[in-house]
Amino acid sequence: MAQLTGTNKIKTAILFSGKGSNLKSLIIFSNKRMSPISIDIIITNNPKAKGLNYSKIFNIKNKIVEYDNKYLAEKIILSELKKFDVKLICLAGFMKILSKKFIHNFKGKILNIHPSLLPKYKGLKTHEKAIKNNEKFSGCTVHYVNSRLDSGKIILQKKVKISRNDTPKKLAKKILVEEHKIYPKAIMKIFNP
Ligand code: GRF
After folding, report:
1. Is pLDDT of 79 > 60?
2. Which of 6, 66, 88, 180 could form a disulfide with 12 if both were Cys (CB 3.0 to 4.6 A apart)?
3. What count of Cα atoms within 13 Å lies in the side-chain half-sphere of residue 24?
4. Separation of alpha carbons 82 and 54, rounded Å
5. How far is the CA of 3 from the centre of ligand 1 (A)?
6. Spatial distance between the Cα atoms of 20 and 119, rounded to a whole number of angstroms
7. Which helix (H) or strand (E) holds 72?
């Protein structure tokens, strides 16, 4: 396979709201020669998001978007995406739901990572729900984003065993380790099938 350089990689934006550990792992992946993507802009709705620190550390532009008005917020996001000629959007713990119109505009170009084995446990509190239901396994899923929450086509999943003494917090930690691995893997799968 031909090596991709910064200039011919797929320009990508990451949308996030919090800690940004998936954001970090995607940036590290994007900096590898074999990565098909570059991270050109990171966007958050949360001015206090810890993940914003990675903007400085990795020298990537960031944009904080006030979300008082969703319509306006998405307008600003769209203009940022245009400015950086973004072709792929990776949601990584982005706690806002994108409008149908926005998703339609980027059909097939928005990915998300979700901490459960979809279609099980869509939405929030996935680990609590899995433990409460006495599941033997949970895990994480990378999927395309469509207009229904956590329901787009699945790209990749990783199973994680739930131990007897797992709390939601412990389980979240175990699954997060796998999230950091499967998000890059899913991107490789899409662009180098
Ligand atoms: C992850 O568990 C991800 O699956 C979910 O939100 C969390 C984000 O964590 N969508 P981080 O900010 O990437 O550390």
Report:
1. yes
2. 88
3. 14
4. 22
5. 30
6. 24
7. helix 70-83
Nearest CA to ligand 1 atom 10: 93
Length of the chain, in residues: 193
Report the Cα–Cα distance between both ends of the chain, in Å, rounded. Answer: 12
Give the contacts of 30 (CB within 8 A, at least 6 positions apart): 9, 12, 37, 38, 39
CB 118 within 8 A of CB 150: yes
Spell out the residues 6+ positions from residue 152 whose beta carbon is closer than 8 angstroms to its own: 112, 143, 144, 145, 146
The label of the residue with tokens 């065993």 reads 161
For ligand 1, is residue 22 a contact (CB within 6 Å)?
A: yes
Q: Which helix (H) or strand (E) holds 184?
A: helix 168-191
Phi, psi of 85 (to 5 degrees): 55, 45
Residue 46 has pLDDT above 70, yes or no: yes
* Residue of 113, 118, 171, 173 to mutate, ligand 1, most atoms within 8 A of C-beta: 113
Three-point CA angle 2, 84, 150, nearest 5°: 85
pLDDT per position as a tens digit, 19-32 = 999 999 999 999 99
Structure-block tokens of residue 123: 């939405």
* Token reading at 155: 């790209």
Distance CA 151, CA 26 (A): 22
